[in-house]
Amino acid sequence: MLLIKNGRVLDPASKTDGVLDVLLDGEKITELGPPGKLLAPPGTEVFDASGLIVAPGFIDIHVHLREPGQESSETIETGTRAAARGGFTAVCCMPNTKPVNDNASVTRFILDRARVAGSVRVWPIGAASVGSKGEAIAEIAAMKDAGIVGVSDDGRPISTAKLARQVMDYCRSLDLPVMEHAEDVALAAGAVMREGVTSTRLGLRGMPAATESVCVARDVQLAELTGARLHIAHLSAKASLEQVRWAKSRGLRVSCEVTPHHFTLIDEDVQYDARFKMNPPLAAREDREALLAGLADGTVDAIATDHAPHEPALKDVEFDRAPFGILGFETALGLALEQLVESGRISLMRMVELFTTGPARVLGMERRIASGQPADLTIFSTAEAWTYEVKNSPSKSRNSPFDGRDFKGRPMATIVAGRVVDKQ
Amino acid sequence: MTHRFRDLLALEPLAADELSFLLDQSKPFQEIQRHPLKKLATLRGKTVALAFFETSTRTRISFGTAASRLGADTMNLQAEASSLKKGETLLDTVFNLNAMKPDCLVMRHAASGAPHYVARHLDIPVVNAGDGTHEHPSQGLLDALTIRDRLGTIKNLNVTILGDILHSRVARSNIHLLGKFGCRFTLCGPAMWVPRDLEKIAPGTPIRCVYRIEEALEGAHVIVMLRVQTERLNDPPLSAGDYILLYQLNHERLRRANRDAIVLHPGPINRGIEITPEVADGPQSCVLEQVTNGVAVRMAILYLLVSGATETDTHPALEAKPKESANASD
């Protein structure tokens, strides 16, 4: 058993905010109570959380673990260790592995590897189409039986409105969210960053904001047509957010996530350094402002990292040639505290919601600290000063634009199924 | 003034006094081009690596000539002959070149920012001989030198650039140099090649985008033509006929410019597409002077970066009388 003493429990589901002890017995939370009042049997391990926040376990609904197929960039073992270091207790791995997770045997392989080598829970996302090629619908029902929690052709959008409509129809019947990488591929052809003054000045080919928002517009209208649960992944543009806001106002089952890098950085930060290259690319100043507003007003449902490791041999090249994507796990909480909470834009409770109940809801799950619930907790400090040094990351890759950045606040313990899987 | 640059990656970060210094240093090398014996011993024993990862004729020959007229040796790498196609990374290729101990790397690359990326990893000076659609600093300098020779100044001129500005590294270098001397820019071409974002790429420099050539040429002192490629990867092709109809520089249109206006073109020219032969070969055209000045400007760049010389050093072209330079050409 594990007793977490004197922590400030923040539980968005029950709106609990107070100093409480939490007792865990293996997989489940046993009891909550005022400090010192819980009866813990002799031999109970004690974690002193004085001065720390005790939150439900963080969930990252958008990550790339690169296994199977690209193990030189990341594995389920290294990726989930990095996730644990970042305070995440569960991660949803996108299906663009080699081979693509478009059938139940790949899903089962991922889950088997996670059971053997994973530090945190791994909830796979299945491909929407076979090979994510945008032609035939993948074996979504079989993958659901095997354990997927959503579908996506991430890395690219579901190819056509016709296929997107069919996938949405099908997923509605299976009660799975369709997680869309919204992009008009033709508009983005050859582009390596967001189109604007910076791309024009640097001579780097840009994609306009509409690259994303025209696809979001297509998809929210198809969500209305089909009644499906549509989730817009790594939303970056103001115009896309307005589409989501419109959909929500019509009562559609549409949600969205925003990454820490999109609410922190903008296109002006790009300096021929491929660590600033990801897709969707860093957006304009006004997009970032809109995302911050959306995070505050509830339009944004979740913070997701889009953790996208690429080994140095692939990523440390000319900007044009480098693959899209950056690491995300270990800097997510620090950036959220700095950009959202310290700046006074949102409360600590809302931030916790964006890492916990928000993403859980996207997946159709619950997340709360209550007796009988899974013993997944993220314990973090809002005060601890530290510097992110990517060379010390458990990840196999080093592609972070935040290397060397100073932070205030970090995860202190990540607890999965009653076990401390990472601790400072 | 001591110049503050170790590399020459772009003109954008350079101040007006640094740019003037580079132009002034080029002047005596222009004289050298007129000597019967053109070789100096200034960089004797030094080696300049010329790494052209994208095909180039004129710029490569110009840098090579500049190096040899300074007495330096060159190593040549060309895209076709390189091992890049064998899967070697740019950095590995450059490290291999560097292991042969050149004193300077001149590089051209199809990726914008590639020289910046390489320079972060090398301790020898890196000269950008054109990177993607970003900058072409030596072209910007030789254009300025040509303008200064013809018009007597590079200050407060109306400069019109015609063509595919979005994809032009020459246009950006022109803007970042001449803009620091009070020049005003009018950019003109098909709207997809002249996005409004260009108006803000050089804060402090007046830049306007217009889409009628007649309007663009009104009152121009300098007209910079760009090579037009109607077919580009990732973009739908544009009709060459439409381009000629709307944007070709011909005699009649040229009359709208200032009477003494000069016409520049970085080459290679598409005769009959962006420019008529009459204008390309006419008295207002500076095309061949640009090429001659290119050698002088590149001599100045190599001299300054390789020798590390500053203003207080006597200029090698002034100290070397023709006879002495003859002795030096070993």
Write down how many β-strands of chain A occur, each being a DSSP E stretch of 2 or more residues: 17
Order of helices and strands of chain B: HEHEHEHEHEHEEHEHHEHHHH
Q: What's the architecture of the largest domain in chain A, going by CATH?
A: Alpha-Beta Barrel
**Which stretches of chain A of 5+ consecutive residues score pLDDT under 50?**
none
Q: Would you state the CATH class of the largest domain in chain B?
A: Alpha Beta
Q: Quickly count the domains of chain A.
A: 2
CATH superfamily of the largest domain in chain B: Aspartate/ornithine carbamoyltransferase
What is the mean predicted local confidence, pLDDT of chain B? 92
Radius of gyration of chain B: 20 Å
Strand content of chain A: 15-25%
Number of helices of chain A: 14
Overall tally of structural domains of chain B: 2
For the record, the CATH class of the largest domain in chain A is: Alpha Beta
What's the helical proportion of residues of chain A?
25-40%
Strand order of the largest sheet of chain B: 7-6-5-8-9
Report the helical percentage of chain B: 25-40%
Question: CATH architecture of the largest domain in chain B, please?
Answer: 3-Layer(aba) Sandwich
Name the overall outline of chain B: globular
CATH superfamily of the largest domain in chain A: Metal-dependent hydrolases
What structural category do the secondary elements of chain A indicate? alpha/beta
Distinct helical segment count of chain B? 13
Description:
The complex is a heterodimer of chains A (424) and B (330). Chain A has 2 domains: 2-53 and 373-423, Urease, subunit C, domain 1; 57-362, TIM Barrel, CATH 3.20.20.140. Chain A has 14 helices and 17 strands. Chain A has helices at residues 76-85, 104-117, 140-146, 161-174, 185-188, 197-202, 210-226, 238-249, 260-264, 285-297, 312-315, 329-342, 348-355, 357-362, and strands at 2-11, 16-25, 28-33, 45-48, 53-56, 58-63, 88-93, 121-122, 178-180, 193-194, 206-207, 230-232, 254-258, 302-303, 377-387, 406-416, 419-423. In chain A, strands 1, 2, 3, 4, 5, 15, 16 and 17 form an 8-stranded mixed β-sheet that branches. In chain A, α4 crosses α7 (210-226) and α7 (210-226) packs parallel to α8. The longest helix of chain A has 17 residues, at 210-226. Chain B has a 5-stranded parallel β-sheet with strand order 7-6-5-8-9. The longest helix of chain B is centred in the last third of the chain and has 21 residues, at 287-307. Residues 322-330 of chain B have low confidence and may be disordered.
